[in-house]
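Friendly challenge for the regulars: who can give me the structure tokens for this chain first? No prize, just bragging rights.
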Amino acid sequence: MAGVLHTVIAVSGTAVRLADTDGVVTDISLIELSAAEDFEVVRASSRAPVPSATPLEGLPEAVAAEALWWEAHIVEVLRGVPPQAPPGTRPKPEYDPAVVSLTRREQAKAAELTAAGRSVTASAITKRRRRYEARGVVAMADRRSGKPVSVHGRVDPIVVEAMQQAIAEAAQGSTRTATYLFWRTGQILEADHGRGVVELPSQRSLYRLLEKLSAGKHTTGSARTRRSLADRPDGPFGERSAVAPGELMQMDSTPLDVLVRLDDGICARVDLTGMIDVATRTVTAAVLRPTTKAVDASVLLARTVTPEPMRPGWAQALAMSRSALPFRRLLDIDSRMQDAAARPVIVPEAIVVDQGKVFISRNFRASCNFLGINFQPVHDASGWEKGHIERMLGSVGTLFAQFVAGYTGFNAERRGRHVEQQPLWSLLELQELLDEWIVVWQTRPHDGLRDPLHPGRTFSPNEKYAALVETAGYVPVALSADDYIELLPATWRAINAYGVKIKHRTYDDQALNPLRQQRSGIKDRKDLWEIHYDPYDVSRIWVRDHRKGGWITLFWKQLHRIAAPFGELAWDHTRRTLPGASEEELADAVADLLRRANQGPADRGGEDTARLSRRDRHVAARTKSSPPSTRIAPEAQPADRVADSEPDQADDTPEENVAKVIPMPIFDPFTEADN
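First reply, four minutes later:
Bragging rights claimed.
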């Protein structure tokens, strides 16, 4: 039948009987006939297209009213009665289609309108009738108002092209004003066509043209936003779906908009490096460092795939820091270890990173190869390719950082005055607050985690993880303790009589006795010993035993005096109530965390710092560079000693037995110098 002319000779229900030029008769379904690729109706009057459902929207009110007025008269010419006429209405004798021809009806309508004061000819009525039959009521509107107008108005297309080039040049450059763009447009016209050949329109026209051409491009706005929009691909966005934990993870680093007090007493901003699982939006690790280095990415990866209870020495380090922890948290150390063990452990199959030197370094690539992880760097200037981690880091700024004492804002224009004079957290304390906030994040409903069958329901990252483990059959296989140590950065040190010193911290253990003041035997390293350490955890280090093999765990000597956070240490009462918490309880927990973060650490100096000189304040800042944790509640202090021996009965210790604490005087070198 293809390419052959047929004639419809019979129609019965949904069946059609066709006859070709040779007289061959074919029966075919009407549906099949209409769906045929070469189907076409010939020798039949073509039907006008269906007019727009909202033809008069956007037109001026007077123009729309005029169109409706003409429609009523033209419909009366065509049908005998105006539109919206009541049923049973008889047409006027001069408009009755049964007895009066169309030409006579058009002449009668012209005479009627002329007598009413609207001078019009019969030919004009004919033209309007034809337009109405072709386009509907929109054809009755003033053609000048419905005429398509150029997007650029009456400006010369050559000027439009030159300004588009100037706008394109400004996409990757620094932000300039509209005056510069006008000047640059003139320079382009002069270079392409010669001086004075193409004249620029007036300033007002240029501003209008710039507004149209730069819409949505931030040409005279934020340079960062402009570059991001310019690098955005054309066409619809694609997205790689992840249906199992670890199938796709993203990692990135960004400066945190909070001033912290570093070890040397100097206040500065730090970098936040985090990793997120796309399928569950689980933040597997997030750490703070003064400056992000290549080894930090490898350590972050190691912490992601190794739960804390499986890290060597974690339980011992937790027990050694008991004396510095608040009493209320001492009672549930075992439960916190259970919570840490139950935290989602996600082993990445693919990691997406940007082109930063930290992530494309040989060190990080080697770690990914060791773990069998697919390493996927994004294209240059394509942050949208890892939008999940970008959005998560933005959430840290809006949901956490701005509530912390020392918040600076994300640029100098938004920074307040004397931010450095606020009570600033130390790096270790701020890390612990961030870890506690991540616990809240894991139980907070996420708008991107929805049930496809019930889009109105949102899941938290922990809930989504539990659901995907059931459906995807995901079994996390965490690294062993030795594998975790191998991924950590290494340094080479001598083993002295007092132990090993790293960054002014001394580490020691009885297991080190056979190796004290001994040489390792590795001549290439000057007989030093290989030490692996976690830059995010100061509680312990590991020494490789080059003689017997294996690792020796050394603990920080001052660990029993300072509540040093080791990763996810913040398993407090908020963590215990979160699994079954209501929306109100969760909001209260978040409010309490943000309130404590906003207050900043308590002033432990006991002096009026406003009266100190600049040099005095500098010395005091260095003295307080590593203050003890602020989580020690005053009412919990008397139970610290009891908790070591009798943790179950320590809660019954009366507060009246608290001894009066007499502070020791602080040595003042300047006073001694005056004496």
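The first helix runs from residue 30 to 35. The radius of gyration is 39 Å. Your move, everyone else.
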